[in-house]
Amino acid sequence: MPRPEHHIIQFTIDGREVRAIEGSMLVDAAKHGDVEIPYFCYEPKLGNPVGACRMCLVEIEGIPKLQTSCSTPVKDGMVVNTQTERVRHAQNGVVEFLLVNHPLDCPVCDKGGECPLQDISFGWGLGRSRVIEPKRHFVKPLALSPLVAIDRERCILCYRCVRFSQEVSEDYQLVFADRGADTFVATHDGHPYVAPFSGNIVELCPVGALTSQPYRFRARPWEIEGAGSICTLCPSQCNVELTVRDEKVLRVLSREHDEVDDGWLCDKGRFAYQSIHADERVTAPLVREGGELREAGWERALEVAAGLAEHKGRAGALAGGQATNEEGFLLARLMREALACADIDSRAGGPMALGLTQALADPKLQAAVPDLEFAHTVLVLGCEPLDDAPILDLWIRKGVRRRGVKLAVATARPSALDASAKLVVRYPPGGEHAFLVALAAALAGDDQAAGDESNNGARALASLLTTGGEDVVIVWGERIGPAAAQMPAIAEHLRLAEREGAGLLEVPAGANGRGLREAGVLPGAGPGYAELGHDAPIGRDAAQIAAAAAAGELTALYLLETDPVRDRADRHLWNSALARASLVVAHASVLTDGIREHASVVFPAESYAEKEGTVVHPDGRVQRLRAAIGHPDQVRAGWSVLAELGRRAGHELEVPTSAAAFAQLVEAVPFYAGLTLDQLGGRGVRWPARELSSRSFPAPSATPAAEPGWVQAGAPRPEPSEAAGPKRPENGMLRLGTYRSIWAAPEVELSPALHFTIAHQQVELSPADARRLGIASGVAVEIAQNGRSLQGIAAIRTGVPDGTAFLAEGIAADSANVLTEQLVEVRKA
Amino acid sequence: MSPYDPGEDVIAVQRAPTSGAVRGTYRAFGETLRGLKTTFARIVEGTTTIQYPEEKTPVYPRFRGRHKLHRFEDTGLEKCVGCSLCAAACPADCIRVVAAENTPEHRISAGERYAAVYEINLSRCIFCGYCEVACPFDAITMGHDYEMSDYSRSDLIFTKEMLLAEPIERTPLRNEGE
Q1: Which pTM does this prediction carry?
Q2: Which domain holds residue A53?
Q3: Is B85 within 8 Å of A223 when comparing Cβ atoms?
Q4: Does the bond joining A141 to the residue before it have cis omega, within 30 degrees of 0?
Q5: Greater confidence, A691 or A254?
Q6: pLDDT tens-digit readout, A44-80
Q7: Is residue B85 part of a domain?
Q8: To the nearest whole angstrom, how far is the Cα of A696 from the nearest Cα of chain B?
Q9: Is residue A140 situated within a structural domain?
Q10: Residue A307 lies in a domain
Q11: Domain contains A790
Q12: Is the pLDDT of residue A33 over 70?
């Protein structure tokens, strides 16, 4: 749906003429006249108002009874009074009623000091109560889930948490049980409220009824400071406010940005802050001596790492998703300028031609996040928003529920959004390429090329996309790999570039995937997707780096906040590559397998709460990270380590501060031109929306279709197998698909509060396959392929297509990246 | 001419006529003698110097000295629930409270939470008594002890155990009417 138009009307409040948007609720409109109306239950983010708390009563001339201003839309010429005796009497009464059952335990309540009920009782209450009857009692405190504590005595039944569960996250778990004076918030059958967004109800609760378990009794509002920053645990890059006490992050709150996160956070973002202060975190430089990593001083560690200079031209580098633009930019400079190496990569999707990369990043094609809400049709292609960028899942649900957006899901694995979708298309894992070719053909009206019966899905999808309205937003995942080559054609058929509210939104694999690419952490492009000069060699991508290192062609590897053994495909190849490399320099905050086994030097990496720098949101918004706490122990800023290594390699990078690195980046990237840290401020700047940036975006260096991949530097590479189409399951083997759970992150493993969510190998099977193999849900299974095997727990999902098994990757043990072939054998363990 | 010309603002000081020798001597020592008269008149009353620290001035009941934390007399539980209101009220910012949760096996205070750390930096405290006023549970009161000097600053940070312990009664309390 297109964005609604706003009409300005005039109304009178407390004798003041005020202009407001027609149809906005009176509580909001009153703010234009500097009139504050108290309320508890009203929260526009939760959808339509319910008028449950009765706190916002006002007098409207012409209406005999008092009205709830949270559910009364403002009209032209309305005359509203909020300060009359009648209104005051009603407000006093409501406060008195709300406090009938509310215990007076403010000194022990975590909400005390930042509690709307306290404030409103003080501001609009009478100050005394006439009630002498006993208050109702519940068992307290109770754990609503391992993350949220519930105190039902304090609850004022405002409906906020229930509405969140029913209408925003749509997990439908929280309900009001019983009725009348006995009403209380609960889950249907008393099971714990475990959901990916459950932590939001803590922030929504206007009283202390729902409190955070990890934050329980940690600090009071006058003992803390709020520090704004960006969460870099996933590409959603939610704006957060970190609660800091005594140089420790104790809580993460949303710093509502209505074009990024809409005021929500996922539980990973909200509770994984505990990893910042985990004992297991690396906080001092480590150097491998006698086969074991030992703590060493910075001088020694830098000296060992400076050995990179001896590997000139034979070093490769990978940057992980949590690295900032500045770190990526300096890494690229260090590799290209000081070490004469072009083998650097940050992508997870495999090789991609420069022209294609440029075409996909074209500012005209970029959809902004709010476009998801106002589009006619949204297509989720090859990604699972809930796992890859959780807040996008909430945005899509919002659009479908409130704006009538038509949702189509085209993925290999069943998605959490299936239930909301108008059309669901399943293609086999690895079949992205064939599917997108068919889709592009169907969009072009070429029914012959669109293929046979098996491509009915593509045809149905094409007709939905073309007939559903002009504004189409395609949310696609970087993990679809080389199939992305079809995206420009699809975008052209749908004319996405011509419409303001239409476009592509790529979900990168790493949190700052987009920023790192723009900073030039690509094997074939400099900062700003610039073509490398003719004399500059085009480097290897990640998979080729692994192969080259395993073959001994690369002798040193630089791992910037990434562990390829855990994060990337083909664990065995990476293990042998890292083992063969004579120098492995890593920035890491936790010793994951690859780092622990193979790193020669480990520099302690900063957590996002300590970083200064910038990141880029998938929709092109450049956002700024601000340090909330000082560096613990011996941790140093990543940019300063890179600058020091440059100096030791004989190439001064000239970055005395993080801001200087940003200035260099702005100078190097044409479409950032003119950006300053001040401009970014707390809200960031979306560069594709800037006139100046769009003009300075590089023209595609070649037609995307004409260029098969990076010009190869290493050994010739076989054509991507996807082009040949996925293999059909045979001999009782199953096709292998992979997924990466939202919880598959080292930060989750280090956070005690999230231990119950740690992702294990869960093998998703279709009911038919499970029956055939005699496997029940929850039993241990063994997955084998080419003599390699791993253990997992079976989970039977009805949406999984027959003949397919989905395995988790990115997890600590038994990750699917051990397997390299397309077919696997699943059997009972 | 000087850069500053006072003009008509010049004030001429008028002095009294100089006195003679006798009158001059009296002017010099007369007031001293008048003071000495009071001194000598009090000699008969005996010494009033208090031999501190052997002797101490009694304090009034509302005297605000070193803080005390209290327990319930019947259950022995701490009255303090670690709400930090004292820390919020403290103008010198000398109170630090870190709270923790009571468990049925490990119950410290009567409420859900208790003060795991309760420290008062007495070298910062200005003994205003706001903490006592702010406390919703009468868990902290100001005692009568004013002898707190020590050899190191860190020894002046009083911990919860020190504040809970029965203080040594070193300071006599002034009786009514005294």
Answers
A1: 0.91
A2: 8-98
A3: no
A4: yes
A5: A254
A6: 999 999 999 999 999 999 999 999 999 999 999 999 9
A7: yes
A8: 54
A9: no
A10: yes
A11: yes
A12: yes
Token readout for A528 is 């700003």
* A359 within 8 A of A333, measured Cβ to Cβ: no
The two tokens of residue A444 are 């072009």
Rounded to a whole number, what is the distance in Å from the CA of B87 to chain A's nearest CA? 8
Question: What's the pLDDT tens digit per position in A135-156?
Answer: 999 988 899 999 999 999 999 9
Domain that holds residue B151: 67-164
Distance from CA of B152 to the nearest CA of A (A): 24
Task: Residue B126: give its domain's CATH number.
Answer: 3.30.70.3270
Q: How large is the ipTM?
A: 0.83
Q: Give the chain B residue nearest A106 (alpha carbons).
A: B83
Q: Report chain B residues touching chain A, CB-CB < 8 A.
A: 81-85, 87-88, 99-101, 111-113, 136-137
pLDDT band at residue A449 under the 50/70/90 scheme: low
Q: Tell me the two tokens of residue A245.
A: 């006490």
Instruction: Tell me whether residue A433 is in a domain.
Output: yes
Per-residue pLDDT tens over the stretch A582-607: 999 999 999 999 999 999 999 999 99
A437-461 burial by CB neighbour count: b if 16+ within 10 A, else e? bbbbbbbeeeeeebbeeebebbbeb
SS3 B58: coil
With respect to residue B145, please indicate whether it lies within any of the assigned structural domains: yes
Residue in this structure with the two tokens 């009567």, named with its chain if needed: B110
Choose the mutation target among A151, A217, A246 for the interface with B, i.e. most B CBs under 10 Å.
Answer: A217
Residue B58 lies in a domain: no
The per-residue pLDDT for range B140-178, each reduced to its tens digit, is 999 998 888 899 999 999 999 999 998 777 888 888 776
Are A468 and A534 in the same domain?
Answer: no
Q: Residues A439, A442, A445, CA angle at the centre, nearest 5°? A: 155
Mean pLDDT of A511-521: 95
Q: For the CA atoms of chain A, what is the radius of gyration?
A: 28
Q: Are residues A652 and A742 in the same domain?
A: no
**Among A105, A112, A223, beta carbon nearest to B87:** A223
Question: Would you say residue B118 lies in a domain?
Answer: yes
Q: Which residues of A touch B137 (CB under 8 A)?
A: 107
Q: Please tell me the distance in Å from B88's CA to the nearest CA on chain A.
A: 6
